[in-house]
Design brief:
single chain, 362 residues, alpha/beta, Udp-n-acetylmuramoylalanyl-d-glutamate--2,6- Diaminopimelate Ligase, Chain: A, domain 1, eleven-stranded mixed sheet, ten-stranded parallel sheet, flat
Length: 362
Amino acid sequence: MAAFSYSLKELAEKLGLVFSGNEDLQITHVCGLDSLQAGGLAYLTSPGGLANVPTPVGMSKQVNTTLDEINSSQVALIVSPEVQHPEHNLIYADDPLATHVEATKLFRPEAQRLPGLSRKSRIHPSAVVSKSAKLGKNVTVGPKVVIYDGVQIGENTILHAGVVIMSEVEIGADCIFYPNAVVQDRCEIGDRVILQSGAVIGSDGHGYYQREGVNLKIPQVGIVRLEDDVEVGACTTIDRARFRTTVIKHGSKLDNQVQIAHNVSVGEQALISAQTAVGGSAKAGHHLIMGGQSGIKDNVQIGNNVTAVARAVITANTQDSEVVGGMPGRPVKQWRQLQSLINRLGELFERVRKLESRKNSE
């Protein structure tokens, strides 16, 4: 049996919701509607999705039905309250997706114990922790973690293997830093922040000047601040400011392999996809969305609710709620029209060639 298993009744009670169906059905895992197996819990965003889960009666009418096929008696679904069906095991929720997420946390809680730690110890013997560091209640420190002088870490934070926290860093409560994440000196991390493996917070900004053809480094003496509920993807880098603060504001989520340059400010609840780059001193409002491999030029001011489609590069200031495409970035409708014209260039060149040939033959 799975490490976590709940009857339909138990699960509904833990979620604080009403259910219908077989209260003794054992739910062992969460899954999508397209990957249902016995004991699975999926969710529906529309009532029509029920048609994809055959009932025992419906299966008996199908051709080439096998005993191994899954039917509604073996699985449960989270649905909106208006959905009613006597042959399905249902949990009713106003927001099925959000409820499915909460159920996922019940089946896959974040590990509180790391390899090599006893039930009483929360600091692995191979970790190097400065005597001046202040660790809150229930902080867990994994193998080969290094914590420098003057670090402060809030309660319940988990540092997995190989994490490095440099001098005078402040970290909030309930954070999770996955293996080999690095936070460099004096940076500030809020509560419930997640750093995926290989993330680097507070690396030097790309600041140089030339004298007599030689590149000379400009010291980067500022910091990075990640506000509450920020998540930073694997191998993403966020550079410290030259003088003050590079900031990622509350609730923003950065994908893997994202580059945030020095002095940048990203507003609340941003969603930034993989291989995206934001140039130095760019400022973005709340609810920024950036598609994969998109970018923002340095020193650009971005409004609220702006979207950059995949591979778009925003090169000039934007208003609120703009959708930008292409390079250089422009309103997405205009960009699509230009792309349509570009796709017709071969046809247009051929027409011009024929006209010139006809004129020359006259």
